[in-house]
Amino acid sequence: xxxxxxxxxxxxxxxxxxxxxxxxxxxxxxxxxxxxxxxxxxxxxxxxxxxxxxxxxxxxxxxxxxxxxxxxxxxxxxxxxxxxxxxxxxxxxxxxxxxxxxxxxxxxxxxxxxxxxxxxxxxxxxxxxxxxxxxxxxxxxxxxxxxxxxxxxxxxxxxxxxxxxxxxxxxxxxxxxxxxxxxxxxxxxxxxxxxxxxxxxxxxxxxxxxxxxxxxxxxxxxxxxxxxxxxxxxxxxxxxxxxxxxxxxxxxxxxxxxxxxxxxxxxxxxxxxxxxxxxxxxxxxxxxxxxxxx
Length: 294
Prior knowledge:
This protein has two domains: about 1-45, Monooxygenase, CATH 1.20.1280; about 50-290. It has nine helices and 13 strands. The protein has helices spanning about 15-20, 25-30, 35-45, 60-75, 90-105, 120-125, 165-170, 260-265, 265-280; strands spanning about 50, 80-85, 110-115, 130-135, 155-160, 180-185, 190-195, 200-205, 215-220, 225-230, 235-240, 245-255, 285-290. The strands form two sheets. It has a ten-stranded parallel β-sheet, with no helix packed on it. The relative contact order is 0.07.
């Protein structure tokens, strides 16, 4: 009996092979492009890419690999692009990759990098629906985060871990935003802050360092159903409107300059009263968790 081996995978239709490739890591999927011209074409049709320099022995090999994948990509469409890399990768090179990704119509962009120069195309992308900008090694994203002109008309989800960003311009340029997470934002250096987003449903604001407090703070979020807020107590809450809130997690703290003597004085009672003004805005929530620090 003569048994003849048969390549069953190559006989599959293109859309099934593309689906199989999408289940592999980006590095594994890219390696199939050497099999034949057909596989080269099929890899270019994979919509999701995930790059992490921890998977490469050297920074040089990582950069070369990412560049090579973009060469193979051609005119293919990108749905999701995830990049995680450390200080060894030049921020300008990262910006070039981002330009390439945005030109391919990416809808979900996830960046975990040490430094990033935000190019105007990121902040004015009509394709982005989900955007995550965070640090590579646990430190807040710094350098080059100046927000000049923002218009992200289709952005629904935003995660930002950065100390240096123009919050007002950022939020004003995201009219369709529904869920937002802001970490380590230094808004204690501002005189006031107003958060007014009509479509926002879920918000998480977290600033762990106890340095300064805002002079005035306002929240006008008509459709908000979930809020997690971890920060120092503001001097004054102008307007708090959380009419539809279902779940709230709150941690309000005193600043570093409030010592034991001040806590025992009448000023501590005054500051507690300021916290009450904020907490009353949550009184309709079904789940209301206040942490010990409050």
